[in-house]
Design goal:
This protein is an alpha+beta fold and 251 residues long. The protein contains 11 helices and 13 strands. It has 2 domains: 163 residues, Sandwich (Jelly Rolls); 80 residues, Winged helix-like DNA-binding domain superfamily/Winged helix DNA-binding domain (Arc Repressor Mutant, subunit A, Orthogonal Bundle). A 5-stranded mixed β-sheet has the order 1-3-8-5-6. Strands 2-9-4-7 form a 4-stranded antiparallel β-sheet. Strands 10-11-13-12 form a 4-stranded antiparallel β-sheet, with helices on one face. Helix 6 packs across helix 7 and helix 8 packs antiparallel against helix 11. The N terminus is likely disordered.
């Protein structure tokens, strides 16, 4: 698994960061929040108050957003980029629990419970994040029932996704895990009955999230290619017949 030097984002750096896109008169932090799914349809006054309690972070690839054991001080919002949430063993082995994509939130469960983070959060690519302070977030949740319902729905969706991912990892066969993962993108583009998938992140990250080594993941992909079940070109995957691939996983 690739290793790299990690940069830790300290609160002082977050306060000093002023991304150009948010420093222009045309685009404000409130505008960015409004464009994110969690804040769609929320009263502009609520969004404005949340924006006032938010810090902006421009994070380079490999930057540490937080570490396991640190106190949770608010909700992290990924404007664009990717963040991996990982657990590390005492010997340094890494298991990726989730890859957060643009428009998603993370870290709020620990904040609501008043407990430390259980995982490390690190950027996979250059990313832009917002951090909404706990006091600001809780004040708006208490005051606005519509916003509180959206926060609950957001947390519920993440829990549902975690259970679905756990179900995939519990499958005994690595081949079944990979096929189940590929078919979970069945809602993506179809052309003449074919399924075309763009893998959302690097293959070694997907492998770790499926509890597979990178080598094992690559061997499975090669075997599926050999059997004419998929075609792979970088992060582009073409599935000529999803039903045939699904049947292959059963046998």
């Amino acid at each position: 698994m690739p290793t790299r030097q990690s940069t830790t984002l300290r609160p002082s750096e977050a306060d000093m960061s002023t991304p150009q896109i948010m420093d222009t008169p045309q685009i404000t932090v409130a505008d960015v929040l409004t464009d994110l799914p969690l804040f769609n349809g929320i009263d502009r006054a609520v969004v404005a108050r949340l924006a006032n309690g938010a810090n902006e972070l421009d994070a380079p690839r490999g930057a540490t957003v937080f570490r396991r054991g640190q106190s949770a001080t608010g909700m992290h919002i990924l404007v664009h980029g990717q963040v991996k949430l990982t657990l590390r063993s005492s010997n340094g082995d890494e298991r990726i629990m989730e890859v957060v994509g643009g428009g998603q939130t993370f870290g709020e469960a620990a904040m609501f419970l008043g407990r430390p983070y259980l995982a490390d959060a690190e950027t996979v690519v250059d990313s832009r994040l917002l951090h909404v302070a706990k006091d600001t977030l809780l004040a708006e949740i208490r005051a606005d029932s519509e916003f509180s319902q959206k926060v609950i729905a957001n947390l519920s969706e993440r829990l549902y996704r975690h259970v679905a991912n756990l179900e995939i990892c519990m499958l005994s066969s690595g081949v079944r895990r990979v096929i189940r993962y590929l078919l979970s993108h069945e809602s993506e583009d179809r052309f003449d009955g074919e399924l075309h998938i763009t893998l959302p992140t690097k293959k070694w990250i997907i492998a770790s999230s499926l509890n597979l080594t990178q080598e094992h993941f690559s061997r499975i992909l090669h075997a599926l290619v050999r059997d004419d079940l998929i075609q792979v070109d970088g992060r582009q995957v073409r599935i000529p017949d999803a039903s045939r691939l699904r049947e292959y996983a059963v046998h």
